[in-house]
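Z., the sequence and structure:
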Amino acid sequence: MDFEKLKERVVNLVPEALFEANPQFPVFTVPADRLHDLASRLKEDEETAMDYLFCLSGVDMEKYLMVVYHMTSTRHSHSLVLKVKTEDREAPLFDSVTDLWQTAEFHEREVFDLFGIRFGNHPDLRKIFLDENWVGFPMRKDYKDEVNIVDL
């Protein structure tokens, strides 16, 4: 499926999806409550067959937190990017996609540990890098490192 057909498919499934021009992948920002259903449809649909989630990243844009999902179809050799965001910095929460792609389990734990973003229905959401007693989320832009005094 080419770039334009992928764009058309996502917009048909989620009309409120915002498309971003990008030379490498079609990129869509979708409402958080539509993410799991859209991802599931993109994976299960024979024409899209997004069977491989190759990157899941947390991003702090200061005014909002975001999770970015890069997925590809190994069968059809096409890829796309989905983004979800929230302005809730106190209790950020998105649906887990571990039931769709098992590799998301590790990535979501990393995002939880370093950004404090929770993933509903995650099978084992716990810290993966930082000590259990660690306070704060070191990848957030408002994080203050009082011990090592690293200022960015």
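The longest helix spans residues 104-115. The chain has one domain: 3-120.

Let me know what you think.
H.
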